Amino acid sequence: QKEVEQNSGPLSVPEGAIASLNCTYSDRVSQSFFWYRQYSGKSPELIMSIYSNGDKEDGRFTAQLNKASQYVSLLIRDSQPSDSATYLCAVNDRDDKIIFGKGTRLHILP
Amino acid sequence: DARVTQTPRHKVTEMGQEVTMRCQPILGHNTVFWYRQTMMQGLELLAYFRNRAPLDDSGMPKDRFSAEMPDATLATLKIQPSEPRDSAVYFCASAGTTDTQYFGPGTRLTVL
User: Fold this and answer.
1) Average pLDDT, chain A
2) A44, B91: Cβ pair inside 8 Å?
3) A21 — phi, psi (to 5°)?
4) How far is CA B22 from CA B3, B29, B52, B91, in A?
C-alpha cells in the first residue's frame, strides 16, 4: 500500500515566524514531489514541485527533499495570515500516479 | 486565462438517482484526472485518462461509477445509482507536458 503521511494538525504558527510542514512517503522509487495549498472550500493549487535531493526556494517557500529518508518538507518564511490553509503533500508512484497525503491544516496567528 | 471547468458546482440528489458530472480540461492538456475528497479519506484518485484513453480506474467502485472521455474537451463521471456515502467533493484536474496538475473548482455532491 503506497502511502503519503502528513500530520493533520492544526499547526499554529505566529505571524512572521517560519512554518514547517512535513511529509513522509513509502514508495522508494518516487521521483516527483509536490506541495499543494488548499483554502477552505476551494480546489488545490500547486505551490512547489521538487525532483532532486536538497532545497528548492521560491519566494517565501522552500521545499526540502531527502530521498534516502523518504521525507519531504515545506518551509514558509515570514508567515502571513493568508498562508492559513491546508497543505497537501503529493508524490508520484511507480505507475506515475500522484498520491496525495491527507493534508496538514496550517493556522497563522495574527 | 486557461482553467479547468466543472459542472455542476453543486448537486443535491436522492439516493438511487443518477448523477453526471462534467469536466472541461485546459485546452491542450492530454491527461485528465477524477478525484474525490472527503474529510475522512482526503483526496482519492478515482480514474485518469491520457489522450482520452482510460489508464487507471482502480480507485473507482466499478459497480456504480463510470468515467468516460467522449472527446478531448469533455470528461464525464457518472454515478448510477447514487448512495449517501457518495457525498463528497469531486474534482477534475488536467495536466499537459509536465506533471503539474491543475484542478477545477469541484462539484459538491450531496446524496440524501
Assistant:
1) 94
2) yes
3) -115, 135
4) 14, 16, 14, 10
Largest CA distance in chain A: 43
Cα dist. A2→A25, A71, A91, A95, B34 in Å?
8, 14, 10, 11, 19
Interface contact flag, A44 B42, Cβ < 8 Å = no
Average pLDDT across each block of 10 residues of chain B; the chain has 112 residues. List them in order.
Answer: 92 97 96 94 92 90 94 96 97 89 96 96
Which of B42, B45, B48 comes nearest A103 by C-beta? B42
Whole-angstrom CA distances from B8 to B29, B55, B109 are 21, 25, 9
Mean pLDDT throughout A73-99?
92
Q: Locate A90 and state its grid cell.
A: 503529493
At residue A1, the pLDDT reads 61
Indicate which of B21, B43, B56, B97 best probes the interface with A, i.e. most A CBs within 10 Å of its own CB: B43
Q: How far apart are the first and last CA of chain B?
A: 36
CB contact under 8 A, A101 and B45: no
Q: Give the angle subtended at the CA of A16 by the CAs of A11 and A19, to the nearest 5°.
A: 30
